[in-house]
Write a structure and sequence with these properties.
Elements (H helix, E strand, L loop, with lengths): L10 E7 L13 H7 L4 H14 L5 E4 L1 H6 L2 H4 L7 E4 L12 H19 L5 E2 L12 H8 L4 E2 L20 E4 L5 E4 L4 E4 L2 E4 L3 H6 L2 H13 L5 E4 L15 H8 L2 H14 L2 E2 L1 H6 L6 E3 L12
Parallel strand pairs: 1-2, 1-10, 1-11, 2-3, 4-5, 5-7, 6-12
Antiparallel strand pairs: 6-7, 8-9
The structure holds zinc ion.
């Protein structure tokens, strides 16, 4: 691993700032109806999270949905942007797999402009909804780079319901895209068990798994000098979040153990070091370079 040796390893803390109904791929997608008459409550979960990271002196990257920032610009002002990083979660929270390249370009450029106008700072990072880059839409990496972002955090380097590319690295790296663009990539952290890879550091996986197991995964990856990338949403911490109608297995994954997240996250924040993506980049870790042209990932197995 080419990251800076003999320094205590820092993990990466991220938060996707979106509303409680921005849940993807439901049979009766309620988004369009809710957009006109909903109760907004992303601030509740955000405030709980902000208190936690302040208490543990953690800097964080907030991937903010452009749609939400446009309707509720005050939510950005709750975040101390001199310490924490504002990055982009795109505008409309559509899965990238459902968009044409020109629609995707429009979505991510629109979000970047809204967030930069609101913060007066350059927005460098992007994370797409639902980790929805697959082997079929890797053109998205070129769109992200060409829209002016310098890094992406959408990649799920394994099998996932909405996306994922098996065989991609589980550590940060420089991606050389099909068009020859260079994009820093910060994948979701996965643990490897034989041929099986599993997330543990955010969202439903974090809520479901016990703290001792999550902590052991942090130690195992950190021992290899690999930073863990964690990700949370307002609804992961908001015990009164309204529940959307959905099939039982989705309901379980979306809402299991919300009441336990605060305590578990406190334990993990006490035990491990975290910082924002931008702070991690400032440490000038050397990233290995991986070219999409040279390596067709579909044939790379679980490495
Ligand atoms: Zn999202």
């Amino acid at each position: 691993m080419a990251f800076v040796a003999n320094k205590p390893i820092k993990n990466i803390m991220t938060f996707d700032l979106e509303e409680w109904f921005h849940i993807l791929d439901l049979p009766d997608n309620p988004n369009s109806e809710l957009r006109t008459k909903t109760v907004y409550r992303a601030e509740q979960g955000l405030e709980i999270f902000l208190e936690l990271i302040e208490r543990h002196h953690i800097t964080c990257t907030f991937f903010v949905l452009g749609w939400l920032a446009e309707r509720n610009p005050g939510i950005i002002r709750k975040i101390d942007t001199s310490r924490h990083e504002i990055a982009s979660h795109g505008y409309g929270h559509e899965m990238i797999t459902s968009l044409k390249p020109e629609e995707f370009r429009e979505d991510i450029s629109r979000a970047k402009k809204i967030l930069e106008d609101l913060t007066g700072r350059e927005v460098n990072g992007y994370r797409g909804p639902g980790f929805s880059i697959t082997e079929k839409n890797m053109w998205a990496f070129d769109c992200i780079s060409e829209a002016g972002y310098s890094y992406d955090a959408t990649l799920y380097p394994g099998k996932h319901g909405h996306g994922g590319i098996s065989g991609m690295p589980i550590h940060p790296f420089f991606l050389v895209t099909h068009n020859g663009n260079r994009l820093e990539e910060y994948p979701v952290s996965l643990m490897t068990f034989g041929a099986f890879r599993m997330a543990f550091s955010g969202g439903g996986y974090f809520r479901l798994l016990p703290a001792f197991f999550i902590s052991a995964c942090f130690r195992l990856l950190n021992a290899k000098r690999i930073p863990v990338c964690s990700y949370f949403h307002p609804r992961d911490l908001d015990i009164n979040v309204p529940r959307l109608p959905m099939p039982a297995y989705r309901r379980f994954k979306c809402y299991v153990n919300i009441a336990k997240t605060h305590g578990k996250l406190t334990q993990i924040m006490k035990a491990h070091n975290f910082c924002s993506v931008n702070d991690w980049r400032r440490e000038k870790n050397l990233l290995p370079e991986i070219s999409l042209v040279k390596r067709p990932f579909s044939s790379q197995g679980g490495k």
